[in-house]
């Protein structure tokens, strides 16, 4: 369940209270008059079922609560209340299937911002992938997969397409289009330096066995990207972040980017081209899967909760 807090001017208090009383899935409405200082106003809180969060937020936005005050949502891990559980039972659908759009948009917007931290993580991941490729080390490549932060912008693109959010799509596209070239460029420069001192050569790229999956692109690559992208989006909308680790080590976005830079510098343009293609296939597959999950997600609970065991 979720805790809803609404901070509004005093003249909106009755409107908000009437709105919450009419909504299904709302319990334990509290009013704290006059506690807001800047701007002055009241705080109204309630416990709401996740399934009805979109309807409640939409109704609050209709009375301009987000502009005249603020709407805040907090995930509650534990709720011990018969009244709250009854309100959740009255709400249509199942909590695990509910997509709280404002929550999802806020999460993906934060994770898709082009920042120094994002660039550093992506660059470090590409460098680890490059080292794993030239040393034929599967462990190092997997570490690079987990470290890569690229799923955030890719999920944001999917959300932006479904919700038609141009600003979110632009933010995510900037992060991807600026982040990958920068990370690959730094990887290429350091590869050139390593080649100059004799640490790596063309034979290094050609004699890999354990990590050759990085540039082995084909239909299976797209299928894996679809499955991983679907799992990643499901983990986001259901707030099960632990599943994201499995997503990270299923796709070869960062390893493909790092190996493309290494192979290009060392002159193996065939491997570089196939690695770049692998990168593109994975990026597109993840976005397509994310869109499909959001579009085809369950709209409601097919079995009444009272009839479930």
UniProtKB/TrEMBL annotation:
<keyword id="KW-1133">Transmembrane helix</keyword>
<feature type="transmembrane region" description="Helical">
    <location>
        <begin position="114"/>
        <end position="135"/>
    </location>
</feature>
<dbReference type="Pfam" id="PF04087">
    <property type="entry name" value="DUF389"/>
</dbReference>
<keyword id="KW-0812">Transmembrane</keyword>
<feature type="transmembrane region" description="Helical">
    <location>
        <begin position="213"/>
        <end position="237"/>
    </location>
</feature>
<feature type="transmembrane region" description="Helical">
    <location>
        <begin position="244"/>
        <end position="267"/>
    </location>
</feature>
<keyword id="KW-0472">Membrane</keyword>
<feature type="transmembrane region" description="Helical">
    <location>
        <begin position="141"/>
        <end position="162"/>
    </location>
</feature>
<protein>
    <recommendedName>
        <fullName>DUF389 domain-containing protein</fullName>
    </recommendedName>
</protein>
<dbReference type="InterPro" id="IPR005240">
    <property type="entry name" value="DUF389"/>
</dbReference>
<feature type="transmembrane region" description="Helical">
    <location>
        <begin position="279"/>
        <end position="296"/>
    </location>
</feature>
<feature type="transmembrane region" description="Helical">
    <location>
        <begin position="174"/>
        <end position="193"/>
    </location>
</feature>
């Amino acid at each position: 369940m979720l805790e809803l807090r609404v901070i509004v001017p005093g003249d909106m208090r009755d409107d908000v209270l009437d709105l919450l009383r009419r909504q299904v899935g709302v319990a334990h409405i509290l009013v704290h008059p006059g506690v807001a200082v800047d701007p002055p106003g009241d705080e109204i809180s309630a416990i709401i079922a996740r399934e009805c969060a979109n309807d409640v937020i939409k109704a609050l936005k209709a009375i301009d609560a987000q502009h005249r005050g603020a709407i805040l949502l907090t995930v509650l891990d534990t709720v011990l209340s018969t009244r709250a559980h009854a309100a959740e039972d009255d709400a249509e659908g199942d909590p695990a299937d509910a997509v709280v759009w404002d929550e999802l948009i806020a999460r993906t917007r934060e994770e898709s911002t082009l920042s120094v931290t994002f660039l550093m993580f992506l660059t470090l991941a590409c460098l680890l992938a490059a080292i794993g490729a030239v040393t034929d080390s599967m462990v190092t490549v997997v570490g690079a997969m987990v470290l890569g932060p690229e799923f955030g912008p890719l999920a944001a693109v999917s959300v932006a397409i479904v919700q038609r959010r141009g600003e979110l799509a632009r933010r995510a596209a900037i992060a991807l289009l600026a982040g990958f070239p920068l990370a690959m460029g730094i990887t290429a420069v350091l590869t050139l330096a390593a080649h100059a001192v004799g640490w790596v050569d063309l034979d290094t790229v050609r004699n890999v066995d354990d990590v050759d999956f990085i540039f082995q692109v084909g239909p299976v690559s797209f299928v894996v990207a679809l499955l991983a992208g679907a799992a990643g989006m499901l983990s986001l909308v259901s707030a099960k972040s632990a599943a994201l680790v499995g997503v990270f080590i299923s796709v070869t976005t960062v390893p493909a980017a790092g190996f493309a830079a290494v192979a290009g510098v060392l002159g193996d343009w065939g491997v570089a081209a196939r690695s770049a293609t692998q990168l593109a296939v994975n990026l597109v597959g993840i976005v397509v899967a994310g869109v499909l999950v959001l579009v085809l997600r369950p709209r409601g609970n097919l079995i009444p909760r009272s009839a479930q065991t």
